Amino acid sequence: MKLEQTADGSYTLYVPELDEHYHSVKGALTESQHIFIDMGLKHSPVPSPRILEIGLGTGLNCFLTLLTAAETQRNIHYTGIERFPLNLEVIQKLDYPSLINKEHEEDYYAIHKVSWGEERALSPWFTLHKIEGDFTNYAFEKGYDIIYFDAFAPEKQPEMWEQSLFNGLYNALNEGGILTTYCAKGVVRRMLQTAGFMVERLPGPPGGKREILRATKPISE
């Protein structure tokens, strides 16, 4: 695994076996902030949202959510599932707090130090539950309001992008709940629509992908 600096100065990890990066080389921080915080969390009207992240990875999306929870004073319960946890040495090299918010450096490392399977409050506004497991055969509870779908790209891990999985995520969401993902491929959009979502193509992050997807579970009349 290789550390690489991205266009906005933040770092990502490159996985040679998959020929894939954890975050966009056009801006790791910019991508996460735009897709998952601005288009996801901030778009949701739920005062105390329950969030599910598919692919906890570096913890960048989780860290940005923790900071946003404090800024907006919204109580957030955050569940992240990860099949291949990163070790602390790799996490330290990414050094996201130095670029994002040095005052909350301990919070960033706390995300990674919480035991798998444990649920812990990391701040008055943020509770984390980490699952070490395989998303493709995990039975999620219902009641989520937001899903961050941040798996590796479909051409790298096609097993993570199957119709049955999107059907399961649709069922896990509350009505009005949303799912955001960086992948705007037509096949993914159609799978989300088949699952029952209303799907929007939105502008991608500045300097990054042209489009992203946001899917919303309709509210019954």
List the helices and strands and how they pair.
Elements (H helix, E strand, L loop, with lengths): L1 E4 L5 E5 L4 E2 L6 H11 L11 E5 L5 H13 L3 E7 L5 H7 L1 H5 L4 H9 L5 E5 L2 E7 L11 E6 L13 H10 E9 L4 H10 L2 E6 L7 E6 L5
Parallel strand pairs: 4-5, 4-8, 5-7, 8-9
Antiparallel strand pairs: 1-2, 2-3, 6-7, 9-11, 10-11
Helix pairs in contact: 1-2, 6-7
Molecular structure report:
This protein has helices at 28-38, 60-72, 88-94, 96-100, 105-113, 163-172, 186-195, and strands at 2-5, 11-15, 20-21, 50-54, 76-82, 119-123, 126-132, 144-149, 173-181, 198-203, 211-216. It is an alpha/beta fold. It has a single domain, classed as 3-Layer(aba) Sandwich (Rossmann fold), CATH 3.40.50. Strands 6-7-5-4-8-9-11-10 form an eight-stranded mixed sheet.
Distance between the termini: 49 Å
Full CATH superfamily name: Vaccinia Virus protein VP39
Q: Secondary-structure element order, as H and E?
A: EEEHEHEHHHEEEHEHEE
Shape: globular
Q: What CATH architecture label applies? A: 3-Layer(aba) Sandwich
Q: Count the strands?
A: 11
Overall domain count: 1
Percentage of residues in strands: 25-35%
Category from helices, strands and their pairing: alpha/beta
Instruction: Give, in spatial order, the strands making up the sheet with the most strands.
Output: 6-7-5-4-8-9-11-10
At the first level of CATH, what is the class?
Alpha Beta
Rg, Cα atoms, Å: 16 Å
Oligomer: single chain
